Amino acid sequence: MGRMSRRVFTLGAALALAGTTAGDAVAGDPVGGVPVPRRGPALRGMWLATVAGRDWPSKPGLSAADQRAELLAHLDTAVARRLNAVIFQVRPAADALWPSPYEPWSEVLTGTQGEDPGWDPLGTAVTEAHRRGLELHAWFNPYRVANHTDPSRLVPTHPARRHPDWTVAYGGKLYYNPGLPEVRRFVQDAMIDAVEKYAVDAVHFDDYFYPYPVAGQTFDDDAAFAAHGGGFADRAAWRRDNIDRLVRETARRVARARPGVRFGISPFAVWRNRSTDPRGSDTTAGVQTYDDLHADTRRWVREGWIDYVVPQVYWNIGFAAADYAKVVPWWADVVRGSDVRLYIGEALYKAGDPAQPAAWQDPAELSRHLTFADAHREVRGHVFFSATEVREDRIGAMARVVADHYPRRVSPDS
To answer: What is the reported pTM?
Structure first.
């Protein structure tokens, strides 16, 4: 998606958007001609990405005080935009934004992996989010180790250097191998440490399981398949089972570590195209999570292994290959009859981007998304990618959403 330009943010105009207290309920009155659904408060979230400093911190090596001030400014922006949840990326690449006994401090903080930043970002985020009436969802990437393939660039004590057999280089990046049971146990241990230490409201995975396909390259898990793939029809089925196990086991361990904490996943929004599988969506996407990422996202919902799902429906209404107006109803049908809550991931980052189709140059496009999605009773909220765009709002698309759909702050319908 690329890093956005940074500029100093003041809360003046944005704070004017803030409504009443977080305990207020949605009344159901039309706002800007848009009827507010009457099924209770919805989740209104934003992703706060830290990988490669995407949203925060603005640059590595800031003082602890400056890092903290920037983090709190993002939380204040969420309040100003009448949001009620922040999904904070705390394990961007086999590292940590809290003092972890398993993995090194993230280099996004100081510029040097393993260097103590002098404060606790996750602990601060949980405390300060709750103080503002926001939920704090801890966002983890399970398998990404580095945005390069050179293990020698990792801190000497890094688990990937102690266990080089755990890693696979692919597409210019380094990954843990999902096919190794010891890897699956380790990444769960590393993530559960944060759940045990902090009163997070949810554990959140994004769309990265097996990596996205790279033309002409092969993910080399031959040895792992030979050792652990017996009994499976093919490698793809074995890979899907590896990810299924990660999801099932993580859900159980989260529930044991801190009862009441939810577990949610935000997948790429196309499970399978209908031309591939009659149960799939009316899309022609080039990537299908079931086949390419070996992530059976539909099954996770139907089996009730997760508490919520946030498909990244990052396309405009009318987009030929994957129409927002076709993908959202497909997901509504998937969750119908289950206890899994459906939130829609929204591509705020595309609004006003000149590289995007004409629909994204219209400040009202995103508001139309919410109007369409909220007509489906299964949709229980929206999450916006990401915090930089929530703050900068280059063409006023977020302000339009707030004006049309968020008349006041509400607590999420958890």
So the answer is: 0.91
